Every structure is written in C-alpha cells, then in structure tokens.
Model the fold of this input.
Amino acid sequence: MPNIDDNISFCLLSSVETCLEDLLIIYFNIHNLPKVSREAGVIGFNRHSRWIFLTTGNDILCILWIRYYSPLSNLLISSIKESNLHSFFLLFAWPALSMLENEDWLGLGVYNSPLDPGVLNNGDGEVVAIYDWETYAPPTSTGGTGGLGFIGMQGTMDSDSSPVAQLATRQAQQGWATVFSLNEPDINGITPAEAASWYIEWINPLAIKKALPAVTSSTTSGQGLSWLSEMISACAGACYFDYINLHWYGTSFAEFQAYIEQAHNQFPSYTIVISEFALTNGGNQVAFFESAFPFLDGLSYVLLYFPFVATSPALLQANDPGAVTTVGTGSCLYTNAGGPSSVGNLMY
Done:
C-alpha cells in the first residue's frame, strides 16, 4: 500500500482545502473506494471547527475532521462506518498542516451529575472530549455527552463500577478512540512494576490511543514523575502508549509552568495530556486559568488538557468534599444553576 507520508510535502504548497481534497482522493484510491474527483468539491470548510463535508450533488460522500499536530510524518487515517450506499468516514489526520496552526484541545473531567456537557461545547472545535474516571459515560441532563468524544478511564486496577474484565467490551460497545488508565497510582500504593504488568495485560490489547497512568505532581521520591519513569523502565519496551498523563495542583501559574516544562524535559519524546489541574484552595482560579490556557495552547507537545473540574460547586461538595477541601470550588466550570462559571467562560 502506498505510504501516505510520501504525499505530505505537497500539502505545504496547497491551500488547506486543496490539501484536504488531495488526502481524501489518496485515501479513496488506496482503498479502492468509489472515485472521488476534484469536481466533487469541498463545502462547509471552517478552519476553527475543522469539519469538512465532501459531496457530490446532494449526497455526502464523507466527513473529514482535521487536527493540526506535530510531528510532520504522523498521519493516521481511519474509517469509522458506512452509511447507506455512500461511504461515511471520520478521518483523523495529523499532517504537515501543523505548520499552519498549533493548537491544543480542551476537555472536561466530569463528576456524575445531571449537568449538560453541551453547555461548554462552544462549537469551535476547541472543547472536544469528556471523561469521568470510569468506563461508562456520565449521566447527563441530555442523556449524551454534548457532542464531545468520550474517553474511557480504567481508573483502578479493578472496581465494581468499572470491572477491568469488561474494559475491552465497553470500549468496543461505546467506541472510544482513547483510553486513560490508572488514576494517581503513585500515591495509592501501586508499584511501577505492578502497574506495568497490569497495563501490559489490560491496556495493551486495546487497538486505540492509550495514555499511561495519570501521575500526581508530587516531588516525593518514588512518586510523580519519578514513579512514571520507573514504570516506563519496568515496562522494558512492552507497554504500548501514545501519551503520558499528568495531574497538577499547586499555588501559582509559575509553578504549573515549571512542572509542565520539567515533564517535557524529562520525557521529551512523549506527547502529554493533562487530565487534572487547578490551584489549591485559596488561589485565584480565574487568573490562573487565564494564564494556563494560552500557555498550554502554545505547546506542541501537549495534546489535551482538562481543568478540574466540570461540575458545579454544590455537586462537587456532594460528590467529593475532599476535593473541595483541597481545591475549593472556584475552579468548577459550572454554576449551581447549570450555566458556565467564570472559569467555564474562559473555554469559549
């Protein structure tokens, strides 16, 4: 099969629309699908939402979702399903278009609640994902995820709510494209060797994007980044993963910035997701996120970040009073009335 990377260079010489058409034509030709010609045209292109509809007449041939991301040679295209007589594809592409734009994605970490995730999905393609520390999507007022992609998380080695034996089945049934693994094992008595063995058995077999266990920002020996380094060593090259997963709680933006840069310097070859972060109780959360969001948006090595937490003050108190003690409620993305909070509004 031809290597699509061989065709990357012309993207830099083409308009965005033309490049996307070329990628689609290459994809259809490689897979012997019905011919797609330039006469089909690209309509509905929006640089910010990155949704492109390729049509012939009234028939939608395919839908393409473009994501600009380094490295240049990393291009993944995968078909999702067929609709009626016409191929209907969701294509994930990370091509040389990263040179045109460098963005990160926002996500929502949600405590189970009746809130509507769609409130924080502003439609511009920035807020794209939701997770809830479990392998089932959170109950919401709309019964769905507000148009956001759900990321399953096997937060513990096993639990009644997310049995590890059902992990693969739930992923297949719900169609996640990404999985997160253990939640803060570095401070919960799980050794790097135990985590590596568990990961190889349960996470490796999932043929989707994978994140290593989410570690804390603890600087205690054997915790945080040092625990992560020990787990990677314990894996001995046998753990298949796409991202390292970080948590951070602290007292200032400068401290957060230093932590993220330290993580990158320690693991320069790995893409980072940040699935929890906020100031500890008493800090100015709005001012912190006003600095943190643009900082993260400027980092090519950070793919996804999730401010803590997509819930309301009342629901956080009901679901996790310990978090209220540690973080307070100023970082909640919702008001008690269900609308976006001062921090939630920063996501628009």
Remarks:
- Residues 1-17, 35-103 have pLDDT under 50 and may be disordered.
- The chain is about 25% helix and 20% strand.
